[in-house]
Every structure is written in C-alpha cells, then in structure tokens.
DNA sequence: GTCTATAGTTGGATAGAC
DNA sequence: GTCTATCCAACTATAGAC
C-alpha cells in the first residue's frame, strides 16, 4: 500500500519532531522497542520514514530521544522536591513518607498512559537496548535518593536501604506501567488512581523500609 | 551464511523439543518476544527452523510452550504450599509471612537466570502477546492467594488486600527478572541471593500488607 | 525539510527431498 | 522427524527529487 502522505513541504520541523515523539512514545509504550517499527511510528505521526531518519538518524536514536523527553522532566521534579525537603529539614532527619512521595509522585502523577509506560520500558526492555539509557537517566536518581532514604531512617543499615530502594523501584515500575489494571483477579477490586494510588504506594513502600 | 546443521536424522523428537525450549527460554528471557527470532532460537538449539515449526507450529506457539514449561511447576508448588498452610491452620488465621513465602519462594528459588526472567516477561512484554498467557497462568494464582492473604490479615479491607497483592506482584516481577542487579547505584550495595533474597522480599511485602 | 522510490537485509513460514 | 531451499512480506536505512 502506497501510504500517500500529504506532502506538506512547509511543515514546521519542530512540529514534525513532536509528532514523531508523540507517536513513538505511544507505540514504544504499547509494544516495546523491538515490537515497534519505524513504519508504524511514522505512519501514526503522518510523516514519511525518511523524515524520521532525517530528524533522529536511527531507530535507536529515536528511542533515546523518546525516553529522554519522558524521563528528564520527571527526574527534575524529583530533584526539586527532594532539595526542598532537605532544605526544610536543616540538620534534622528527613521524613520517610515525604522522601518516598518526592520519588514516586512525579512518575505516577503524569497524565497519560503512554507517558508512564514508556518510562517503565527502561526496566523491562532487552538490556542491550536500554542499559545505557537506564544508567544515564537513573544513575543520578539512585545516588541522590538512596542516601536521602538512609537519612530518613536513622540507624539503618546502608546496604539494606540500598536493597529496599531496589524493591521500591520494582513497585514504581509496576505501578507506572499500568500492570495494576491488567493482572487477572476475578474478585472485587478497584484500581486506585491519582492521589489514592500515590498514597497507597507510599504507604506500602514506607512500611517495607521501616520493617 | 548457510548454517550447515549436522543432519541427525534419527534424533529423538523429545530431545529436539527440549533443546528448542531451552534455547527459547534463554532468548525470550534475554531479549523478550519481539526481540527474539526463530532463527536465533533454532541456531542456539542446533536444529533447523523447520524443525521448530514442525514441533510448535509458529513463533507464538513456541512462546506459549516456553512460558508454560516455566510457569506451571512454579504455580503447582505455590498451590501445594498454600494448601499445606491451610490444612495446618484449620479454622484459625493464616500466618502472613508463610503465605507470602508460599507465593514468592517457588518463583525466586528456581535455579537459572533464564528460568526466572522468562516468567517475568509475562508482565513486561507487549499485551497482545502475553495477555492470554497471563490470564491462563496467573488467574488461578490470584484467585487463590488474594483470599488467603485476606485471611492472614483479619479485619482487613478486601479491596486493599487486592491492591496490595498487585504491588506484591510488582515486587516479585522485579526480583525474579534480575533487575536488582542492573539498576545503577554507585554506592555500597550487595545483591542478596537465595534464602536472603526470599526473606528480604517477604519482610518488605509483609510490612506493606500490615501497614 | 519532506517526500518517493528503492536498496539491502532479515523476518516467519512452507514445500519437498530424504 | 529433520533437513535444504525458497517464498514473500516487512524491516531499517539511504539516495535523490523537489
């Protein structure tokens, strides 16, 4: 099938890039990296394959740009919230729930399924594809939040805090990837949303850290 | 490149199927479903593509068989352990840590990275591929364990228990998929293994359920 | 900056010999 | 039951017109 794309020559470059990133975000989220083709992305964006390669150079680079656009503002919000907590605490201890909230809220709160799921792909797609991206986008987060959590748990074993942080990441990934909706359970169960979901996750994680 | 497979005509069928399942298990675990090709699987197994299609019919069916071989015995062990706990408890309440152990141990304890990671793919690969498999293999597990957990938490809100079970699944997936190893954190941190890992996960989850 | 057209590769699946 | 050879579709990426 010849796709017959409207040949809008004068289309704005920034607009085309955004359209591609929007489509890539949705499709990578739904189907993963290997399961998504450049054709599917460009068709969803209403542009040609060549336009995508002109703007991003390769499928790998498109993934990196897509992940970056999703993750960077989330991490910025995390750092800002944590910095505010540290400033307010002065020399005293940090509040555990507040630190967990600073970590979880920016990720869970984002509107749009795709926006959250594509970030979760960072932890579920094949290693060779995402290992560099994970290091780039998540290394600083770990290095900032693990010590902060230790400071919120006076007298705790640093190695235990590091492990519990890894388990916290497991909770976060599961929640933001929308798995709460899809696990089969036939009993009565309503998936919480928004503020409820954030509070439930903070509650669960905080108890784990204090155990 | 012509693969030049040794043409062992008299090779045993069961052996070939096992070799294919072994290879598929490892590759699906490492690369996911879309990221794994039939050629890669058959080459790793030392058989031809046709042999795989003869035995399984399609790539989809190979995935279903691979997942089934991994997950069924794990779930059997879960059910046996839970049944034993219920029998021992009689009419009294169940012990939360023991129920969580019955759920987590069979999955975490399995030897072999691939064996565990391929099960985790059930929760991370694209929905259209695994949704039916997830329902088939995980529906009964949820329906058995959610009530058991509620019984271990007298007076609890059933809907809260169902949510906390979903979070437990998030912990399990993260642990068995080996993500504890790969998240970047530059501080001191040793990944626990075996019994330590099971106990740490049970501890963390139990606290969440009790919170 | 965006398109059409196509190169070059690799994918899943099958036909048919043995 | 297993192979070789092959079909055809779909893939990423690029060349070149506009």
Notes on the structure:
Two copies of one chain form a homodimer. The radius of gyration of chain A is 20 Å and the shape is elongated. The mean pLDDT of chain A is 93. The first copy, chain A, has helices spanning 13-31, 38-45, 49-56, 59-89, 96-109, 113-120, 127-152, 158-176, 179-182, 194-210. With 211 residues, the first copy, chain A, is mostly helical. The first copy, chain A, contains ten helices and no strands. In chain A, helix 8 (158-176) runs antiparallel to helix 10. The structure holds a DNA duplex (18 and 18 nucleotides).
Order of helices and strands of chain A: HHHHHHHHHH
Q: Biggest sheet of chain A: strands, sense, closure?
A: none
Assembly form of the protein: homodimer
How much helical structure, as a percent, in the residues of chain A? over 70%
User: How many strand units of chain A?
Assistant: 0
Give the structural class of chain A: mainly alpha
Range of strand content of chain A = under 5%
Largest interface pair:
A-B, 59 and 59 residues
Mean pLDDT of chain A: 93
> Rg of chain A, please?
20 Å
Spatial separation of the terminal alpha carbons of chain A: 60 Å
| Number of alpha- plus pi-helical segments of chain A | 10
Please tell me what the overall shape of chain A is: elongated
- List the uncertain runs of chain A: none
């Amino acid at each position: 099938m010849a796709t017959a794309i409207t040949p809008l020559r004068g289309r704005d470059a920034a607009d085309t890039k955004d359209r591609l990133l929007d489509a890539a975000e949705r499709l990578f989220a739904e189907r993963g990296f290997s399961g998504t083709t450049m054709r599917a992305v460009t068709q969803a964006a209403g542009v040609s394959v060549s336009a995508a390669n002109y703007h991003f150079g390769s499928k790998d680079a498109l993934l990196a740009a897509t992940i970056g656009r999703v993750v960077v503002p989330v991490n910025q919000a995390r750092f800002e919230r944590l910095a505010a907590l540290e400033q307010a605490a002065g020399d005293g201890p940090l509040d555990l729930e507040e630190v967990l909230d600073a970590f979880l809220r920016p990720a869970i709160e984002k509107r749009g399924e795709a926006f959250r799921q594509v970030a979760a792909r960072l932890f579920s797609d094949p290693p060779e594809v995402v290992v560099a991206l994970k290091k780039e986008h998540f290394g600083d987060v770990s290095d900032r939040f693990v010590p902060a959590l230790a400071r919120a748990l006076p007298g705790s074993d640093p190695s235990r805090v590091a492990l519990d942080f890894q388990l916290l990441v497991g909770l976060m990934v599961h929640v933001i990837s929308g798995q709460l909706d899809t696990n089969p359970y036939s009993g009565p169960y309503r998936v919480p949303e928004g503020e409820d979901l954030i509070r439930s996750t903070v509650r669960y994680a905080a108890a784990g850290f204090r155990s």
